[in-house]
Amino acid sequence: MAEPGFLPRPRFRHLLAALTAAGYRCLGPKVRDGAIVYEELDSADDLPRGVHDHQQPGAYRLQRDDSPRCFAWANGPQALKPLLFAPREILWTSAAGSDGAIAFHPQMPEALPTAVIGVRACDLAALRLQDQHFLEGPFPDPHYGVRRGNLFLVAVHCTHPAATCFCASTGDGPRAESGFDLALAELDEGFIVTAGSPKGEVLFGQLLLEALDPAQQATADGEIAAAAQAQQRTLPSRNLRDSLFANLHHPRWDDVAQRCLSCANCSSVCPTCFCHAEMEEPALDGSHSAHYRQWDSCFTEGHSYIHGIVIRADTRLRYRQWLTHKLGSWHDQYGRSGCVGCGRCIAWCPVGIDITEEAAAVCGGDHA
Amino acid sequence: MLDPYLPDEVEVLERIQESPTIFTLRLAFTDPEIQARYRFQPGQFNMVYLYGVGEVPISIVSDPEDEHLIDHTIRAVGRVTQGLALLGKGARLGLRGPYGRGWPLQLAEGRDIVLLTGGLGCAPVVSVIHYILRRRERFGRLTILQGVKHTDDLIWRAQYEAWSRLPDVQVGLAADVGGPGWFGQVGPVTVLFDRVHIDPGALMMMCGPEPMMRAAVQELRRRGVAEEDLWLSMERSMHCAIGHCGHCQMGGNFVCRNGPVFPYPEIQALLGERGF
Ligand SMILES: Cc1cc2nc3c(=O)[nH]c(=O)nc-3n(C[C@H](O)[C@H](O)[C@H](O)COP(=O)(O)OP(=O)(O)OC[C@H]3O[C@@H](n4cnc5c(N)ncnc54)[C@H](O)[C@@H]3O)c2cc1C
Ligand code: SF4
Ligand code: SF4
Ligand code: FES
Known about the structure:
The structure holds two protein chains of two kinds. Chain A is 32% helix and 24% strand. By secondary structure, chain A is α+β, with helices and mostly antiparallel strands. Chain A folds into two domains: 5-229, no CATH class; 241-366, no CATH class. In chain A, a hairpin with a 2-residue loop joins β4 and β5 (59-64). Chain B is 21% helix and 31% strand. Chain B is α/β, with parallel strands linked by helices. Chain B has helices at 32-37, 79-85, 105-108, 123-134, 157-164, 210-222, 255-258, 264-267, and strands spanning 8-17, 22-29, 45-50, 54-59, 70-75, 92-99, 113-118, 142-150, 169-177, 185-186, 203-207, 230-233, 249-250, 253-254, 261-263. At the A-B interface, β6, β7, α4, β12 and β13 of A face β6 and β14 of B.
């Protein structure tokens, strides 16, 4: 790979132009309804310049100052997951003929080549896990796959972790180490650009980058290191599997069940959660029917329903399923924890339940 | 990329009423090439799609060497299965499969086999009985144990009686609640273990309610049967059958993909643990 180069801030639009010329629609961070969301960028002016976030358990708010920086915030509620694993999508349709025959029609999504600008290290780690789940098993999912194949990822190393972040503890950030096409380190005066893939390399070559001053690299590295240092939360270990399963009867599960609303916010903002329901929507005239999938959550009653029995009938069992899966059985399934430390489930929980606190309470005790 | 979610069309060749709520659909793909390619192992299942209603996981009960048809024995319990119950010969459905790990029939060759089922006629185990009886010389002594709640719940009653008369076959039946004309025992299915001889080298395959399977596992362990020779068929909610939707998870296992048939050591840790 080429040595990193420097892109002065006024030329950031060249990156958008190069991506557009290469056939990508560009998605990037924008402020909408008081949160940072990834949407189509018309120009670099759409970026959240001077916007910073404040996140706490159960709280998220933005504020603005006159900083020139556009990526000086930690992740909002969603990033890559809904772009690849759609919240609701049609899988196939069927149509009944007059003779009773049924024809099945595949429904592949129309996946426009898409560049996402501003992807964080935690979300790249989560993407890696979603890739493993949807693409690397015995039944690769073409719906996810076609979108994934058309994706161009422009990472931005994180320099502004929120109080809810703990990617340093899970080993997934704040520096984007791999899994991107281009990575940017933001400085006041511009961006240090690194290529991470052959696709990225081609685009890198079109940016007419300037030579990098070693002092700029040192500033960027220092900011990323400081972002790791600044994180306040940690998990007790990167592998809590045995500890969690040894503590299935810990009193903390009852305690958290008193607070948890079973609302499923945590699983829907979590970038690694993959559960979904399949459902059928027949046309009223009976001529055809559509088979959908839609995000589901282990916090819903229907999730564990088998005719006549609900395996997880109460909140204690559901919260325990979420935590023992996320931090425990993911190790069996995908060789690592299912948590990348993004902190979303903490900020977006209406009652401020903190996964790091619950994990420490369950695993720290000696109740087996 | 092939779409693993997409069913293919099948036709009902025959419908057999087994009991007031249980029926068998004999199916074949309408595309003969798909039917010719289709192969399965006993204990595997298909996703059966009822037009406009949805898909349900159903075990395959026909013989794997019968290449012309796929039998499903189904109990009508809810939206999809009650709809399936209304279908007759010639009706069309969707089908995709087979999925999952089936029964360990190769491991079972040359050995005594114990088959235990509970609840309303457990079709996947009955298909193993047929499988073994058609290849009798490859297996040792066959012990068939069945527990039901009420004596009326026993379907295929005549078959159990016929099996009990075969050489090298023992049949034990138990009903929680006895009734007139009942020829089996009264009590939980585990009372049967005192009435039959089980060789410690036997291989056990079971399906049915989990408390029953757990009790049976304990009884058999006490009789010296090795843990890895105890095989259980598990049931969980299943929407996708291919390890994607997450509904069937039991700890780290996707029951649809790693099961539904498991050797006991693979699920021991969470078997009987409420909520998994
Ligand atoms: C591996 C395996 C093998 C099986 N083999 C057999 C077999 O050989 N024979 C047999 O009879 N049964 C078998 N079963 C059980 C069978 O799959 C269930 O009886 C069947 O799924 C019930 O479906 P239903 O629609 O009739 O019942 P319902 O209770 O109406 O629905 C069950 C399913 O529909 C979903 N559902 C229910 N209500 C709603 C709603 N309001 N909105 C959205 N979704 C809803 C549930 O999530 C659930 O998945 C097997 C199950 C498994 C897991
Ligand atoms: S569990 Fe919470 S902190 Fe971990 S990846 Fe999911 S949303 Fe982020
Ligand atoms: S932990 Fe919080 S976000 Fe998750 S279900 Fe409970 S109340 Fe909702
Ligand atoms: S049924 Fe969907 S993951 Fe097993």
